[in-house]
Amino acid sequence: MKKPLYLLIGVLHAMPLVAADPASAPAVVTKEADLVVVRLKPEAEQRLRMKVVPVESRRVPDVRVYPGLVVRTLAAGSTVAPQLGGTLDEFLRLAELQIQADDRVRQAQVQEDVARIAFKRAEKLLGSESGSARQVDEARAALGLAESALQTARSQRALLGGSALDPSSAGRHWVRVAIPSSEAALSRGASEAKVGHLGTARLETSARRIPGPPTANSLANAVDAYFELPDESPFKAGERVAVEIPLEKASRSATVVPFNAVLRDFHGGEWIYERTGAHAYTRRRVQVARIHGTDAVLESGPPVGAMVVTDGSAELFGTEFMTGK
After folding, report:
1. For residue 232, what are the domain limits?
2. φ and ψ of 48, to 5 deg
3. Domain holding 221: CATH number?
C-alpha cells in the first residue's frame, strides 16, 4: 500500500540535519553577493605555500594575431619553392606536374645524346674526307639546340622542387600568413613570430621569418609572409594555426599578471584569486587578451596594485569546488 505524499514529507522534515563543524574545516567558503570568498586558516596557507604578487602596469610590445597555414616545402633553402598544404588535390596535382616535367627532361636528354653522336660522326667523316664542313656545322647547331632544350627542361623541373612521392626530399615546414596590405608595413621588421594552435591563449612555438615566395592575394588585399617552423614543432602540413607577429617599434601600457595566476573553468571562463583580507581570497573574473612571455596581458580584471595568488591558486579553486584533496 502506497503511503500518502504528505506523510513522506513529514518524515523528511523530521529527519535531523547533520552539519560539519566549521571550526574543524581548513577552509570556509562564503558568498557575498556575486563574489566568492575563500577563508583559509594560517596553517592551511603555510601548507599550500601561498604566494601573492601585485597586478602591474607594464609596457608590452604591440602585436597582431593572424591566421596562418602550415605548408610543407619541396625545395630547401629556396625563396621560390612549391608548397603542399596537406590536401590530396594539391598533392596529386603537384605529383602529376613533376612526372610530366621528368618526362620532358628524359626526352631532352635523349635528343641531346642523339645530337652529340651525330656531331661526332660528322667530325669523323670530315677527318676522313668523306664529309663536309657544312655537315659538321649543321650537326654542331643541332647539338647546341638540344643542349639548350635540356637545360630549359631541367630548370623547369627544378622549379617544382623535390619529388612529392619521396618524403626525404622535402624541405622544411613553413607557416604562410596572409597579412592585410594596410598592416604589412607595421610588421615588416619582425624577424620572429609566435605560433600556436587555434583556440589556445598561449602561443609558444617560435618561428623565424624567411624570404619566401613573393605571393599575394589581390582579392583579399593581402600579402603573404613566411615563417619557418623548428624541426620539433607539433604542427602538420595543412593545419590552420594562430600567428602572433610583433609590430615594429610599437608598444603600449597594459595590465599584466603572471600566467600561472589565471585559472580556467569547465566553460572556458578565466579567473584569478585576489587577496582581499587576512587569510581571505576572492575569486574574480578576468579576460586575457594575450600571453606575453610568462605574463598574461589582461583585457579586464582587478586594478593595478591588487594582490593576486600565483602559487596555490589551483588549490583554492579545488577547495571552492570540492575537487581538491
Report:
1. 63-76+169-248
2. -85, -10
3. 2.40.30.170
